[in-house]
Specification:
Layout (H helix, E strand, L loop, with lengths): L2 E5 L1 H6 L3 H15 L5 E5 L9 H14 L3
Parallel strand pairs: 1-2
Helix pairs in contact: 2-3
Length: 68
């Protein structure tokens, strides 16, 4: 079984800072990724006004902390 999610698209991805994105992504990985099968993602889609810096930070955080 796999679990996908769950960064909040408005408060974290759209309105948050890159540091907020990193903190939320790391927490999601720590909470759900221990035994594999976790897909880090937003809770929905990223809105068109989502800052590129936040999207890049999500990818960077996944590369750093998402290997197990």
């Amino acid at each position: 079984m796999s679990l996908m999610g769950n960064l909040q698209t408005t408060q974290v991805m759209l309105k948050g800072s890159p540091a907020d994105v990193e903190r939320a992504a790391k927490k999601a990985i720590d909470d759900a990724g221990a035994d594999g099968g976790f897909l880090l993602s937003t809770g929905d889609q990223c809105g068109r006004d989502t800052p590129e810096a936040n999207i890049f930070k999500l990818v960077e955080t996944a590369k750093i902390y998402g290997k197990y």
